[in-house]
Amino acid sequence: MSNTSDKETVQYDGPAGGWGSLRGISRIFGAEWPTPGALETLSRQNKPGGFMCVSCAWTKPAKYHTFEFCENGAKATLWELTTRRCTPDFFADHTITELRDWNDYDLEQQGRLTHPMRLDRAQDKYVPCSWEEAFAAIGAELKALDPKSVVFYASGRASLETSYLYALFARLYGTNNLPDSSNMCHETTSVGLKKVIGASVGTSVFEDFSTCDAIFFFGQNTGTNSPRFLHDLQAAVKRGCRIVTFNPVRERGLERMISPQDPVAMVSGHATELSCQYHQVKPGGDIAVLLGLCKHVLAADDAAQADNRQVIDRAFIAEHTVGFEAFEARVRQVEWAEIEAVSCLTRAAIEAAGAVYVEADKTIGIYGMGLTQHVHGFENIATYMNLLLMKGNIGRKGAGMSPVRGHSNVQGQRTVGIAEKPELVPLDRLAELFDFKPPREKGMNTVEACEGILKGEVTAFIGLGGNFLRAIPEQRAIEEAWPRLRLTVQIATKLNRGHLINGEVASLLPCLGRSEMDLLTGKPQVVSMEDSLSSVHGSVGKRKPASDQLKSEIEIVSRIAQATLPENPKMMWSRWARDTALVRDLIEQTYPDQFKDFNARIFTPGGFYRGNSARERQWKTESGKAEFVTPEMLSATGFDAAPGRMSLITMRSNDQFNTTIYGYSDRLRGIEGKRDVLLISPREIERHGLTVGEQVTLITDAGDGIDRRVGGLEVLPFDLPDGCVGGYYPELNPLVPLSHHDRASKTPAYKSVPVRIERAV
Ligand SMILES: Nc1nc2c(c(=O)[nH]1)N[C@H]1C(S)=C(S)[C@@H](COP(=O)(O)OP(=O)(O)OC[C@H]3O[C@@H](n4cnc5c(=O)[nH]c(N)nc54)[C@H](O)[C@@H]3O)O[C@H]1N2
Ligand SMILES: Nc1nc2c(c(=O)[nH]1)N[C@H]1C(S)=C(S)[C@@H](COP(=O)(O)OP(=O)(O)OC[C@H]3O[C@@H](n4cnc5c(=O)[nH]c(N)nc54)[C@H](O)[C@@H]3O)O[C@H]1N2
Ligand SMILES: [Mo]
Fold first, then answer.
1. DSSP codes, 539-595
2. Which of 256, 438, 443, 648 sits CB 3.0–4.6 Å from 15 for a disulfide?
3. Distance CA 268, CA 263 (A)
4. Residue 368 CA: which ligand 1 atom is closest?
5. Residues near 499 by Cβ (< 8 Å), separated by ≥ 6?
6. Cβ contacts of residue 722 below 8 Å, gap of 6+?
7. Which residues pair with 509 in a beta bridge?
8. How many whole angstroms from 377 Cα to the centroid of ligand 3?
């Protein structure tokens, strides 16, 4: 292992999973956890005929465990099942200006929203209104606005059915402005994989994890963000598969775990070691590492050829790819010294990882935000793909590229039309089905929507879930510009900061959660979602809703559409809102290859696979082949080293789901009771002349003359490579410049922000 951990830093000594994960749930939901209703709901989570977790997008296996949920999935469900209510009385007691000073945790702690509310500017309060009033007001406003100036945002939770209708509504209205949380997340994947292999999502399926020989991990934190995946990793390791991890932070979940499903291990405390090698790469050092790994593969192939063997799959490269020669030349030319300098890893460490790759017949490549959220995120992913292509690891059982997606239906929302890029949507088919002329010009993605808001070109924002203002970069400037919007509409389950900065006309519309029954029909709500491995699952919500005023997301979207659009006999909004099976028929008609027999297959155990051309070695790229890309840079950060400049990683704690803060424990990293911290290595503490526990300010070092700073951060010694610091998202989002994003996809570069540390004087 390289960079063995430092004893002076905060640490967590236990494994992931185990009793700690059960305690993690009880600590937060102590009072609500034991209710029979909550346990009953959790026992149906992620099983065929049950409801699909609202937390991460990891797949739901056909052969499920008794409790097919994890610590963080349980937190997400209990968060939705809470008995607390955020009622009109609460809003009567607090002005909006006052609530803006509350923190994220306290806002969401008020519980589920219960009534439709509208902004009363004179009183500076939200006041209750009827649904009819709300829809009429929104429709009247939208009719008066230029559709090209209206933004339809979606956070990746809403079902396939709601998402399909939401995108259809936006296009009937006249715009492709459909940014999605994916634009801040795996957009690098959507753009990058599409360019290099012609499929915008991962190529692996669940079965591949049972036969692969090696799994490489770059920048994905399984223990916190997709814990159910730990079981599959544990099973893989037990049958001899080797896991190699590259991550600046020693994430406990990837080191060792105890399955809470395994009584013997729980009692004995016997943990499984997951990664056989763990390399603490410097943030943004992955292109260099990957070139080093490819260098090792070439060297191994050179040596093998002397005995008439080969390591590189030359037949695959010749038949299926373009660009290998240029890439090979670059790899041979790059010096180990350069690789070591950029990655902060030794040649020996990278060669040790390379040896695992060379020995493995079948390798799966996993990655997450540690690769996507960089200025050269595209090159991160393309170089990773090069490594896999060299040994023909794409389109082969037991191998493949597997980005781990974020929100539970974020991948599916893209599949059914929530996309600002019109070329990704079968517009001709929509035109035919609904007899209209869909807009053909490109819409705004998240960064472009923010630019439009700053320039005054956006007039309205509709949010289908999420906490846009807290999740985006350049938070302060955008909050300042936001009140210039004419209309803001937020469809949500809980109150968050994004609801407290409003347009001139604003409404806050409370919706059902996924576990709840639909009140419109009085029947269980059946919806569907797509997981990270492209399998589609039905989900049934049976619980009594948090309030009798709640509407399903699909009904809310349909009613806004009805209030806005002219009559069209083909648009049967009321029927669709009552019967989601009809919407699945529309999805099937729009995407006949991927959603064949959708309604018949919706409850297939383990989901039904919607297919992936690259898995079949059909390359829907510009060249018609898989494309090797030769990266021009070694570092993905997009900025140079300078005296005092540090690279900031913004991280998620184990007690949060994005901007939702469940609690103040990041137990797998040993950080308790605080989030306003600056994580920094003891070496860097000394180098900067800091004292452990002192409060410092971080200032963005972007050289654009804009003052961005966040103060009150406690210096905490943490095991990190030199030259970088860490801290929590969303608190540190004001530091991220809007222009600091992946060049190809505009995914914000949240994992390497140039900053300086300022001491209080
Ligand atoms: N409990 C919980 N589950 C979640 C979420 C949540 O907030 N909480 N969020 C959901 C969403 S929307 C998403 S997108 C996913 C996010 O899940 P992940 O993709 O795991 O995202 P992060 O936790 O932001 O960061 C991933 C890892 O990248 C590492 N890293 C940072 N910079 C670099 C780098 O330059 N190189 C490498 N190799 N590694 C780096 C970090 O140390 C961290 O371990 O999780 C989803 N699931
Ligand atoms: N600095 C930094 N910034 C980041 C990231 C990072 O790693 N670092 N990660 C980025 C990533 S990967 C993402 S995906 C974005 C997340 O951005 P978003 O998806 O916009 O944010 P969330 O925090 O997931 O949204 C939480 C809110 O969603 C609402 N909600 C919850 N459940 C439901 C539901 O069922 N229906 C509806 N209608 N509403 C619901 C609740 O009101 C809750 O307050 O943030 C991005 N921002
Ligand atoms: Mo995400």
1. EEE-BPPS-TT-B-HHHHHHHHHHHHSPP-TT--HHHHHH-HHHHHHHHHHHSTTTT
2. 256
3. 8
4. 19
5. 490, 492, 508
6. 282, 344, 681, 683, 684
7. 491
8. 15
Angle, helices 553-564/131-144, rounded to nearest 10 degrees? 50
Asked whether 126 and 439 are in contact (CB, 8 A), the reply is: no
* Stated length of the chain: 761
Residues lining ligand 1, Cβ inside 6 A: 55-56, 72, 185, 218-221, 224-226, 246-249, 251, 281, 283-284, 286, 368-370, 404, 406-407, 649, 651-652, 656-658, 751
Q: How far is the CA of 155 from the centre of ligand 2 (A)?
A: 6
Whether residue 65 contacts residue 699, with contact meaning beta carbons closer than 8 Å, is answered with: no
Q: Which residues pair with 724 in a beta bridge?
A: 647
Model pLDDT for residues 149-160, shown as the tens digit of each residue: 999 999 999 999
d(C-alpha 66, C-alpha 184), whole Å: 34
Q: Whose CA is nearest to atom 32 of ligand 2?
A: 493
Residue 3 has pLDDT above 50, yes or no: no
| Structural contact between residues 637 and 747, judged by C-beta atoms closer than 8 angstroms | no
110 C-beta closer than 6 A to ligand 2? no
462 CA from centroid of ligand 2 (Å): 15
* pLDDT tens digits along 89-139: 999 999 999 999 999 999 999 999 999 999 999 999 999 999 999 999 999
Residues 6+ apart with CB under 8 A from 640: none
pLDDT for 2 equals 40
Q: What angle do CA 120, 123, 129 make, to 5 degrees?
A: 35
Question: pLDDT-based confidence at 32, cuts 50/70/90?
Answer: low
Enter the tokens of residue 136: 């009429």
Nearest to 53 by CA among 172, 157, 169: 157
Is the minimum distance from the CB of 446 to ligand 2 under 6 angstroms? no
Instruction: Report residue 368 as tokens.
Output: 């997450």
Is 32 strand, coil or helix?
coil
- pLDDT at position 745 over 70: yes
Protein residue with its CA nearest to atom 46 in ligand 1: 406
The Cα angle at residue 181 between residues 178 and 186, in degrees rounded to 5 = 110
More confident residue, 742 or 82: 742
What does the pLDDT average to over 518-527?
Answer: 87
Looking at residue 389, its pLDDT comes to 98
Nearest CA among 222, 204, 377 for reference residue 290: 377
| The pLDDT of residue 163 is above 80 | yes
Report the pLDDT value the prediction gives residue 632, as an integer from 0 to 100.
Answer: 97
**pTM above the 0.90 mark?**
yes
Residue-level pLDDT at 4: 38
The three-state secondary structure class of 322 is strand
Q: What is the pLDDT of residues 682-703, one digit of tens each?
A: 999 999 999 999 999 999 999 9
Give the closest residue (by CA) to ligand 2 atom 18: 466
Which residues, by Cβ under 5 Å, contact ligand 3, an ion? 185, 406
Phi, psi (degrees; rounded to nearest 5) at 739: -80, -5
Per the listing, tokens 């099983």 go with 47
Kindly report whether the peptide bond that precedes residue 260 is cis, defined as omega within 30 degrees of 0: no
Tell me the pLDDT tens digit for each residue of 174-198: 999 999 999 999 999 999 999 999 9
Closest by alpha carbon to 649, among 296, 299, 371, 390? 371
Three-state SS letters, 380-448: HHHHHHHHHHHCCCCCCCCCEEEECCCECCHHHHHHCCCCCCHHHCCHHHHHHHHCCCCCCCCCCCHHH
CA atoms within 13 A of residue 150's CA, in its CB half-sphere: 25
Spatial distance between the Cα atoms of 733 and 577, rounded to a whole number of angstroms: 37
**Residue 176 token pair:** 């492709």
pLDDT at 258 over 80: no
Distance 455 CA to ligand 2 centre (A): 24
- Which helix or strand (DSSP H or E) is residue 519 part of? none
